[in-house]
Amino acid sequence: MQRLLSIAFRDLLDKDIWIAISELSIFFRDLIDINLNVENLRFLHENISKILCKLQKNLSAKFFESIEHFPIHLAYEAILDAPIQFRWIYPFER
């Protein structure tokens, strides 16, 4: 999904919105990588707020609710604990 989302919307959205969505998908792709290093996670943690600001600037304010700030905490949690895919419960809920 991290790769297909940006490809699917390339021709449908404005360039600024498409760039922000592709940066967001790159963020999630890098976050669930098995080989993580702390420097890369710190870089992700610093840049996710910029990515979300780009989305908020270009999209309607109705799009943003309280849950949209959640990715800001994911990189920091990965720095503290371990790679995120080992702590997600989604595969086990099925």
UniProtKB/TrEMBL annotation:
Residues 35-94 form the DUF4218 domain. It holds the Pfam family DUF4218. PANTHER family: DUF4216 DOMAIN-CONTAINING PROTEIN (PTHR48258:SF4), DUF4218 DOMAIN-CONTAINING PROTEIN-RELATED (PTHR48258). This is DUF4218 domain-containing protein. It comes from Stephania yunnanensis. The lineage of its organism: Eukaryota, Viridiplantae, Streptophyta, Embryophyta, Tracheophyta.
